[in-house]
């Protein structure tokens, strides 16, 4: 028997008299019911079933039994469909433009059009969006415009996202409440919890704006995912987490990314309202995200949506996915469940769409995108000195001054005599003379 020192014996007696060691055996910090057998659980549904997937339209665009079509009129349906078609139109052109060596990099959204456009449509235009990199459609929905898309991808003087200083698809727009994309995975997730909290504390926005954070199921394997969700649940904020589960993180299939019930299963672990939705069904995504957003605002708390889809395209232009998945699998998915075709069938069933409208739209979008591409291609890059401007606020730090001096020195020495540099300098406005002739 362990003999407690007399001070400890006094504490035990005091606990006992306050009922803390009584038959009821109350536990601190828990209202969990006491049971007499160990109960192991490995399901959040309470019934050992997988979390269900919410769907409105079946594969041929017909509402499934019991489904309620979300409030949508012909005008909104047209906007949804046009943006879902604009995405692949831009993707096809920009993918090929990269292949021709005219831009350095690109990422397509093939297969995720319904997830991206449906969710964008459910947000308010000034909800703050923190994306991963495959959410160009949110900007299109908000009217960023194809000229701005092209300018960013070309990194030319018209690039409003970052004066050509970011990789293609790393968009950003204060005007469109779209925070600049950064490549390191999952960094946007804890940042979103912070943005949500800032919104909550901002007079005038607290009750009407949310932070919407997109990420892939692969990014959800990062520690930042857990940090972000824990922060948003313990320091409550209207932060909407939208997991795009497209089946792959580059070459790693989602089956190797987690052993549990997807990303959705993690929400309840953080006390976060969660829903899983068919990401190929634009109406289901629209309805789920509308409701998720409503809950965010009503409760001032985070909500998690997991949208299930399939990444039809390669991960990026730096990837050849047929090295790790059969071409036939991709072709099958494209044939069996195309989110654009599914919504088109719904539109036709409402009398809102027909072959003629389809042809007109495709021709118009293609013409607009090609016109914009030609314009972007003809523009020069920003003046070279812009490389050093507005990187930091306030006075320019010594290290930037030093780097500018070094570049100027090198350009003076080699800029006009060494062919690769001469060619490169000719791509900048003023041929780099703004630095050379300082
Ligand atoms: C911290 C970090 N690790 C690795 C990478 C390289 N990387 C870029 S995208 C990617 C896959 C991400 O997959 P997922 O989150 O599912 O998004 P998806 O590309 O499928 O949309 C990886 C591993 C990175 N950018 N950052
Ligand atoms: Mg993925």
UniProtKB/TrEMBL annotation:
Coiled-coil boundaries: none
Domain of life, per UniProt, equals Eukaryota
Q: Which reaction does it catalyse?
A: N(6)-[(R)-lipoyl]-L-lysyl-[protein] + 3-methyl-2-oxobutanoate + H(+) = N(6)-[(R)-S(8)-2-methylpropanoyldihydrolipoyl]-L-lysyl-[protein] + CO2
Keyword annotations of the record: Oxidoreductase, Thiamine pyrophosphate
Obligatory cofactor(s): thiamine diphosphate
Instruction: List GO BP terms, alphabetically.
Output: branched-chain amino acid catabolic process
Enumerate the GO terms in the molecular function aspect: branched-chain 2-oxo acid dehydrogenase activity
Q: What is its EC number?
A: 1.2.4.4
Q: Which Pfam families match?
A: E1_dh
Q: What class of enzyme is it?
A: oxidoreductase
Dehydrogenase E1 component domain sequence ranges: 83-381
Family of the protein in this entry: Belongs to the BCKDHA family.
Function description: The branched-chain alpha-keto dehydrogenase complex catalyzes the overall conversion of alpha-keto acids to acyl-CoA and CO(2). It contains multiple copies of three enzymatic components: branched-chain alpha-keto acid decarboxylase (E1), lipoamide acyltransferase (E2) and lipoamide dehydrogenase (E3).
* Protein name, per record: 2-oxoisovalerate dehydrogenase subunit alpha
């Amino acid at each position: 028997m362990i003999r407690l020192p007399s001070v400890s014996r006094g504490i035990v007696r005091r606990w006992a008299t306050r009922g803390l060691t009584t038959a009821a055996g109350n536990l601190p910090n828990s209202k969990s019911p006491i049971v007499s057998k160990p109960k192991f659980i490995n399901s959040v549904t309470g019934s050992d079933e997988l979390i269900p997937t919410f769907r409105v339209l079946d594969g041929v665009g017909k509402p499934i039994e019991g489904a309620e079509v979300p409030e949508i009129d012909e005008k909104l349906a047209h906007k949804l469909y046009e943006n879902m078609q604009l995405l692949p139109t831009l993707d096809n052109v920009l993918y090929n433009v990269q292949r021709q060596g005219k831009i350095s990099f690109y990422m397509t959204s093939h297969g995720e059009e319904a997830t991206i456009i449906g969710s964008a449509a459910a947000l308010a235009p000034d909800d703050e969006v923190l994306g991963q990199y495959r959410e160009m459609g949110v900007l299109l929905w908000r009217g960023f415009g194809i000229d701005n898309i092209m300018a960013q991808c070309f990194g030319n003087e018209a690039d409003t996202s970052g004066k050509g200083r970011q990789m293609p698809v790393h968009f950003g727009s204060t005007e469109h409440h779209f925070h600049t994309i950064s490549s390191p995975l999952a960094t946007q997730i804890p940042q979103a919890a912070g943005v949500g909290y800032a919104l909550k504390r901002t007079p005038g926005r607290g009750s009407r704006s949310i932070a919407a954070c997109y990420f892939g199921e692969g990014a959800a394997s990062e520690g930042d995912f857990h940090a972000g969700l824990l922060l948003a649940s313990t320091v409550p904020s209207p932060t909407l987490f939208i997991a795009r589960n497209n089946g792959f993180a580059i070459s790693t299939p989602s089956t190797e990314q987690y052993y549990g019930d997807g990303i959705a299963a993690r929400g309840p672990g953080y006390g976060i309202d969660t829903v899983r939705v068919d990401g190929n069904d634009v109406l289901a995504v629209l309805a789920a995200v509308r409701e998720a957003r409503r809950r965010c605002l009503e409760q001032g708390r985070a909500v998690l949506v997991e949208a299930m889809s399939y990444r039809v395209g390669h991960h990026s232009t730096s990837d050849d996915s047929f090295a790790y998945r059969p071409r036939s699998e991709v072709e099958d998915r494209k044939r069996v469940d195309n989110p654009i075709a599914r919504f088109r069938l719904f539109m036709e069933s409402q009398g809102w769409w027909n072959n003629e409208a389809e042809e007109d739209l495709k021709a118009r979008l293609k013409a607009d995108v090609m016109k914009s591409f030609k314009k972007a291609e003809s523009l020069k890059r920003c003046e070279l000195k812009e490389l050093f401007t507005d990187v930091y606020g306030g006075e320019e730090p010594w290290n930037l001054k030093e780097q500018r001096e070094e570049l100027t020195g090198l350009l003076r020495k080699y800029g006009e005599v060494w062919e690769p540099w001469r060619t490169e300098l000719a791509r900048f406005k003023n041929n780099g003379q703004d630095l050379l002739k300082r």
